[in-house]
Amino acid sequence: MKAVVALLAGTVAIAGLSGCQTTDLWHADDARYKFVSTSGGDVEYFQVKGTGDVGIIVIHGDVATLADTVNIIRGSFRDVAERLNKELGATVYAIARPGNGRTVGGTFGFQSTYTEYGLGRVIEAIEGISKIDGHKKFDIVGFSAGGATALMVALKRPDLVRKVVTYGGETDPLRSKAERRNHPKQFSSSDFPIYPQKLMEEIPVSQTVDYRLLFGTEDENVPFKIGKEFADAMKAKGFKVTFKAIEGTTHYDFMPRNGDKVQAEIRAQLTN
After folding, report:
1. CB burial class (10 A; 0-12, 13-18, 19+) of residue 150?
2. pLDDT tens digits for range 88-114
């Protein structure tokens, strides 16, 4: 996968791929970077304070290099959080999933995404943030593999979630990676113990969460037809779900640096 976050000057990465530790000189005095305790160790998040009873959680996708994963909530995903806060006025949290940022534990890459361990850590982090700041419900914005995490959090814990908005969200990662052009690695079902399609088929229907699934028509990483089939399956089972294909956008048009078309649609879905 292409890198999605640039290494910021003044940040030094230390240690190996698992449980990355950093000395962050650039943001050392930025109090908006915080930690919340979970059973597996601290989870790092970036917070932009706003108003309202419902907070917004932003969940990043996977990246290609250690430098990118160390800085995952210091580049594009910090920009997403700041823009959502500016446009909507809500308190926004960008969470660094296990194996990313200064979050303790986890494995670099997608391996922590599709496991009970990785999902459980994110759920615990959201519970902890709820206790700290008093939000009882959250809207969750997820991109790519972060979209998979957002969907699974809502499916597992609908009591925490009001709305999910995903762009290019993985719903069946084995299938999308198999269909992706020139993917460098072959995968098997053992690489993905849990994922949204499987989880959705196994759990009872929750009518409380509003699911908004956005895909780019030119997305070669997560084909929108897979997302459409997932949305149709959710509807057939009784979930409240909206599917929208954004004409002409690619996977990485989620990033603010690539224009505002996708981010504007995400904001519209959050407010409608």
Report:
1. buried
2. 999 999 999 988 888 887 665 566 789
Please check whether residue 23 is in contact with residue 109, taking contact to mean a CB–CB distance below 8 angstroms.
no
8 Å CB contact between 3 and 63: yes
The amino acid at 113: T
Backbone angles phi, psi at 84, to 5 degrees: -60, -40
User: The pTM is what?
Assistant: 0.87
Q: Strand, coil or helix: what is 263?
A: helix
Q: What domains lie within the chain, and their CATH numbers?
A: 11-271 (3.40.50.1820)
Tell me the backbone φ, ψ of residue 61, rounded to 5 degrees: -90, -170
Query: For residue 242, with 0-12 CB atoms within 10 Å meaning exposed, 13-18 middle and 19 or more buried, which class applies?
Result: middle
What Rg value do the Cα atoms of the chain yield, rounded? Answer: 17
Give buried/exposed letters for 159-179 (b at 16+ CB in 10 A, else e). ebbbbbbbbbbbbbbbbbbee
Cα–Cα distances (Å) from 237 to 140, 201, 232, 233, 243, in that order, read 22, 9, 9, 6, 15
